[in-house]
Design brief:
alpha+beta; Ribosomal Protein S5, domain 2; 2 domains; binds adenosine-5'-diphosphate; binds magnesium ion
Length: 321
């Protein structure tokens, strides 16, 4: 079973930022209003995610670190509203690191802690915590040399973690996010009143003032968001934030559609800055092609591509660009 977990871990966990994504998604699923992420050594030494969500029962704690135990499959695949439903993340992480989970279930009289050291489980035992959940991951990949050697510098891994948090924070504007740690200055995204405020927190006021609002719809596929004016471009594509049904994605077709919308108004070596949300019937899209890769499979990719390219071109044309 330990070996199976390690193999599964290779699918789910590529780098520290993938762990952060899984843990923060769990906190979001738990209904948290405040999520804190702390890191050391680019997340290789320590990752800690603290939330004020519903917590985990003593009886559920041991289950949570076992393979394919998920509390999120009650409604069937088509109805899944929560971010994760595979029940693979925690067992995978526990197989390639030292994992500890402290949690106090809402309404419970006490908190409990469970520890998993490279697949070896200890607990649950009583601990002190007033509410929510604290998940700590130490020494990620330290015993998996094949993975360890593919990790980048602490600084690069830190940047990747910040990027993942920004994407999730854009998807959840009403949640307060804080990222701190030895290797960085503390960044806070306070709970925002609306999406516009969250976008300004993350991409800066300057972007908000140099962007066009996008809204378009085709056959029940809706597009909304802010697209930076062609004059507000970047030398890399890090500031392109794409979401499908509220989930951050990094899909080649969508990125290429975004570029296509700017093709006539932006130099080839520049990259647009944009935050775009696609909303469509979940039956027409599969956002879980790969647990870690954020790829998407649309039933009608041509329709989605046309919607994005068309909406951007029309917006720029109307602005006389
Ligand atoms: P999944 O999210 O796919 O269900 P995970 O391995 O990520 O699988 O988590 C296993 C289970 O542990 C979840 O289904 C959930 O019940 C519980 N859990 C994990 N993290 C939290 C958290 N921060 N707050 C509350 N429950 C959590
Ligand atoms: Mg999960």
């Amino acid at each position: 079973e330990h070996l199976i977990d390690q193999i599964a871990a290779g699918e789910v966990v590529e780098r520290p930022a993938s762990v952060v994504k899984e843990l923060v998604e769990n906190a979001i699923d738990a209904g948290a209003t405040r999520i804190e992420i702390a890191t050391a050594g680019g997340g290789k030494t320590l990752l800690r995610v603290t939330d004020d969500g519903c917590g985990i029962d003593e009886s559920e704690l041991a289950l949570a670190v076992r393979r394919h135990c998920t509390s999120k499959l009650s409604g069937g695949l088509e109805e899944i509203a929560t971010l994760g439903f595979r029940g693979e993340a925690l067992p995978s992480i526990g197989s390639i690191a030292r994992l500890s989970i402290r949690s106090r279930a809402a309404g419970a009289g006490a908190a409990y802690e469970i520890a998993v050291d490279h697949g070896h489980c200890d607990g649950p035992r009583p601990t002190a915590l007033s509410r929510g959940t604290v998940v700590e991951v130490r020494d990620l990949f330290q015993k998996v040399p094949a993975r360890l050697k593919f990790l980048k510098s602490d600084r690069a891994e830190s940047t990747a973690i910040t990027d993942v948090v920004k994407r999730l924070a854009l998807a959840e504007p009403e949640i307060r996010f804080e990222i701190s740690g030895q290797d960085r200055t503390t960044t806070v995204f306070p709970a925002a009143r609306d999406m516009g405020e969250r976008i300004a927190q993350i991409l800066g006021e300057e972007f908000s003032q140099n962007a066009a609002e996008i809204t378009a719809e085709r056959e029940d596929v809706r597009l909304s968001g802010l697209a930076g004016l062609p004059t507000f471009s970047r030398g890399n594509s890090l500031q392109q934030f794409l979401f499908v049904n509220g989930r951050p994605v990094r899909d080649k077709m969508l990125v290429s559609a975004l570029r296509g919308g700017y093709a006539d108004v932006m130099a080839k070596d520049r990259h647009p800055v944009a935050v775009l949300f696609l909303t469509l019937d979940p039956a027409f899209v599969d956002v879980n092609v790969h647990p870690a890769k954020a790829d998407v499979r649309f039933r009608d990719p041509g329709l989605v591509r046309g919607l994005i390219v068309g909406a951007l071109r029309q917006t720029f044309a109307e602005a006389g660009l």
